[in-house]
Amino acid sequence: MGRGRVQLKRIENKISRQVTFSKRRTGLLKKAHEISVLCDAEVALIVFSTKGKLFEFSSDSSMERILERYERYSYAERQIVATDSESQGNWTLEFPKLLARTEVLQRNIRNFLGEDLDPLSLRELQNLEQQLDTGLKRVRTKKNQLMHESITELQKKEKALQDQNNLLAKELKQNEKTVLVEHAHREQPSIGQNSSTFMLSPQQSPVPLTLALPSLTIGGTTFGATAIVDEDAGSQTQPSTTTLMPPWMLRHMNG
């Protein structure tokens, strides 16, 4: 069976204690030297025996240099600890103040909402009313400013839309005039052609032509006749007289 773990406690036997110290001291110095060499660390070891004898080891040539470095780090560490302690103390003192201020602000908010007004005195109520009036005036001023800016923006948009509408109406009128002019140019030649055809081709009309014959005045009486020509039949009808004429005169005119 292996040996059990030795319980660490003070050796009561003085001789055994001295022997153990001597052995462990040598091993401790050896371990300090090994860690300084293997790990390139600065090691300082100070041991005082029971009788007050000093045993030391330093990886550097000067023990004082390592001790000074230790002092600097120790001082900085102590300052950090002191600062933290002071800050913690300040926060401890500041917490009640902040808590009291928070309660005051919450009470003011409730008062602004019209709650918890019974504990307030007349003067406090007047101050509260004045604060509410001042805040209300600021709110109304800001509201009027926003409304004015909104109205101005809408007026600008309305003017832009009106200008655009006028431009579109102008373009529409111009397009209508152009269409009317083009239509008139297309219709004018056909109208002239139809008029000339109508004037130059009366034979196409179903209405017969009426010819005026020379009139004759005898004894203050004027005699006249008209002849109707039927183009479709290709013959001339008998003349019709506007005034009764003697038959011999009609035969004479026909001969």
From TrEMBL:
Any one GO MF annotation of this record: protein dimerization activity
InterPro entries xref list: MADS-box/MEF2_TF, MEF2-like_N, TF_Kbox, TF_MADSbox, TF_MADSbox_sf
Coiled-coil ranges from the UniProt annotation: 125-178
Residue ranges occupied by any MADS-box domain in the UniProt entry: 1-61
Pfam families referenced in this protein's UniProt entry, alphabetically: K-box, SRF-TF
Domain annotation K-box: ranges: 88-178
Main location: nucleus
Subcellular location: Nucleus
GO annotation terms (biological process): positive regulation of transcription by RNA polymerase II
GO CC terms, sorted: nucleus
CDD domains the UniProt entry points to: MADS_MEF2_like
Entry keywords, A to Z: Coiled coil, DNA-binding, Nucleus, Transcription, Transcription regulation
Gene3D superfamilies with a match to the protein in the record: Transcription factor, MADS-box (3.40.1810.10)
The protein's name: Transcription factor CAULIFLOWER A-like
